[in-house]
Every structure is written in structure tokens, then in C-alpha cells.
Design goal:
Length: 229
């Protein structure tokens, strides 16, 4: 899994479960591999199987919530994160991922509170700084959002998604030249990054005086870095 080979990891977890079907860590890890392979429904079934054996397994509760978000069931995901936080109120991962679910529900103010709680516990969590920035941008607090993306990039240099979010925010602030430079960096890092290509087009149009772009034309992703496992 650490080497980015979830298919091989999945085969290993399946072999472990063939030996011991009630192995909760293997069930949880199988779910993570399935989610990474783009199979959230199968991942959810694996997390549910783990929780049937060990109802308070924090990793499985957290990962179950993330799979539910993938499936568009953010309300249910909140319940999973809330259960994890009832067991461990200082769970920075669950707080960050709960914020992601709230963003899916367009509850940016509440999400911001969760991200800030997570950062109080884990100040160097780049994902939470990035996610905090997206919530601030949704609330049209652009200068604060940009500062949050800058902090995330200081912790995780060269991350294309964070660069893209910073670029979108620079464009919100009318800084088309700076946005264009950031989009170019993001695309160099990840040539298939469609939101960066779209944003770059908006920046070029703004720079060339093509008229005021409607805000809705500027991409507004919710959370582009991964939640915590």
C-alpha cells in the first residue's frame, strides 16, 4: 500500500482473511485497498464487517465515514465520524474527515470549525490546512484561504492539488498573473489535472482583458487532498 500498489496489497489481505476471516485489521486494510482502487461500496462492506466484530475500532469507523462520503452519503458519514469522536474526542483525523463530509453538505462554517479543531491537535497536518483553505474560500474569505494554502504548501511542497487551490484563490483576488504562474506549476507536476487546465484558461482570459468572469466559472473544488486514514 505504501508503494502505491493497492491491487497487490488487496491480494495479501484476502490471503490473510482466508486464514482468519475475523481478523479486524485485515478487514479494515482490505477496505482501504478497495477504496484506493475506486470500489467504495465494496470498501464499505469490508469496514462494516470489521465493525460488526469490533464496533469501536477507530480506524474502521473513520474509514467507513470516508467511504460513505465517496458514495454521496455524507449525512451517514457524519454519524460514523461522530461515533469515532465520542470514543476519542481528540481524534484529529476524524475531525478533519468530518469537516470534509460537512463540505459535501455545503456547511462550510461548521467544516471550518472541525478543520481548526484538527489543526489545534495536529498543527503540521498539511491536508487540514488545505481543507481549511477550501472552507475559507467557500466563505469568500480569500486572503485567509490563501494563507492557509501557503501554509499547506510549506508543509507539503510541490503538491499539485494545493497549488491548484491557491491558484483559484489568487484568481478570486484578481491576481491573474500570479494565478497563471501557479496553474503552470500545478500542470507541470500533474499534466492531467483538469481543474488546473480550466483555471489556467480563466486566468488567461482575465489577463487578456476578456471581461469580468462570472464567479461560477472559476473552479471551486471542495477538498482535493486525501482525508486521513
Amino acid at each position: 500500500m505504501a508503494r502505491g500498489r493497492p491491487s497487490e496489497a488487496l491480494a495479501s489481505y484476502q490471503r490473510a482473511l482466508a486464514v482468519r476471516p475475523d481478523c479486524v485489521p485485515a478487514l479494515n486494510n482490505r477496505g482501504v485497498a478497495l477504496r484506493n482502487l475506486g470500489c467504495p461500496a465494496e470498501a464499505l462492506a469490508s469496514f462494516d464487517a470489521a465493525l460488526e466484530i469490533e464496533p469501536e475500532h477507530l480506524d474502521a469507523l473513520n474509514n467507513r465515514g470516508r467511504a460513505l462520503v465517496d458514495l454521496g452519503r455524507a449525512d451517514e458519514a457524519l454519524r460514523s465520524f461522530d461515533k469515532a469522536l465520542a470514543i476519542n474526542p481528540h481524534g484529529a483525523r476524524a475531525l478533519n474527515n468530518r469537516g470534509n463530509a460537512l463540505m459535501k453538505l455545503r456547511r462550510a462554517e461548521e467544516a471550518l470549525g472541525n478543520y481548526e479543531q484538527a489543526l489545534a491537535l495536529e498543527p503540521r497536518a498539511a491536508d487540514a490546512h488545505n481543507n481549511r483553505g477550501t472552507a475559507l474560500r467557500e466563505l469568500e474569505r480569500y486572503d485567509e484561504a490563501l494563507a492557509s494554502f501557503d501554509r499547506a504548501l510549506a508543509l507539503l511542497p510541490g503538491n499539485a492539488e494545493i497549488l491548484g487551490n491557491a491558484s483559484h484563490t489568487l484568481l478570486d483576488l484578481g491576481r491573474a498573473e500570479d494565478a497563471l504562474a501557479n496553474y503552470d506549476l500545478a500542470i507541470a507536476l500533474r499534466p492531467d489535472y483538469d481543474q488546473a487546465h480550466n483555471g489556467r484558461g480563466n486566468a488567461l482570459a482575465r489577463k487578456r482583458g476578456a471581461g469580468e468572469l462570472r464567479q461560477s466559472h472559476i473552479p471551486r473544488p471542495l477538498t482535493t487532498t486525501r482525508g486521513w486514514r
